Amino acid sequence: MTAPDVKSLFSLRGRVAIVTGGSRGLGLAIARGFAASGAKVVVASRSVDACAAAADTIRAEGGDVLGVPCHLGEPAQIEALVDATVAHFGGIDCVVNNAATPLRTTLTDFDMALWRKSLDVNLTGPLLLVRAALPHLDASDTATVINVLSVGGLRGSMSLLGYGSAKAALRHATEVLAAELAPRNIRVNAIAPGPFATKMLTSGDATLSDTAAADTLLGRVGEPDEIIGAAIYLASAASSYVTGSVLLVDGGQLA
Fold it and tell me: 20 to 30 Å CA-CA from 181: which of 64, 93, 130, 202?
């Protein structure tokens, strides 16, 4: 392979990607990275204002972007997200299921409403989005699905019973979907982030961030832009022989 051939492996030029939870944190970093790699990006988030602000940021950087408000716990809004994407860009090549809600519940303080909401947003919503996008992924020659998990779904995490269980189930679903959709030439993979400097981690007690950093081999939390390489790899031709895999981006937390 020549140098241009290798470079082209990581190009997303001309592809249409939906990134849920794309208005901040890891989702915004992925959306910005995809746009910089040539993709047409749809940023989905519950907040109308947050969607607009993220789209403005990406547009100012030269990206082709559309902001679409969407709550992953509402099936009708998921269908509307797919319809808006196809109406604006003409198709869908990649779905990034990044939106999540880290609702805290334990067995002793079990809250049925929080449990159901966690499953709706963290597990059911991503599955419904892939299902809604499926006819358009079928029509793509480069179809990919990327589910954003968490190390909290790969090992037990105190007080994250709902969130961790949903993410663990999404990991299993990633493998099932990879098997089901492989004959349709749709690759399905996942990224499992460790501690990153996002609102989910930094909005609490500062000791939480320090503890998370000490739990990694690299001794620090990740910066949001450090997720971009993994996402572009799984969305691009660079990973053309990869499906059903989980890529850890955790600073060595689970090593």
Answer: 64
> Where is 193: in which H helix or E strand?
strand 187-193
Please give the Cα distance from 110 to 106 (Å, whole number).
Answer: 5
Is 241 tagged catalytic? no
User: Rounded distance, CA 235 to CA 245, Å?
Assistant: 13
Ranges of each domain in the chain: 3-249
- The residue from 34, 89, 163, 233 that is catalytic is 163
The model's pTM: 0.94
Residue with tokens 């519950």: 46
Architecture of domain 3-249 in this structure: 3-Layer(aba) Sandwich (3.40)
Phi, psi dihedrals of residue 181, rounded to the nearest 5°? -95, -10
Q: Is 31 within 8 Å of 58 (Cβ atoms)?
A: yes
Element holding 66 (H helix, E strand) = strand 64-69
CB 236 within 8 A of CB 7: no
CA 57 – CA 28 distance, rounded (Å): 9
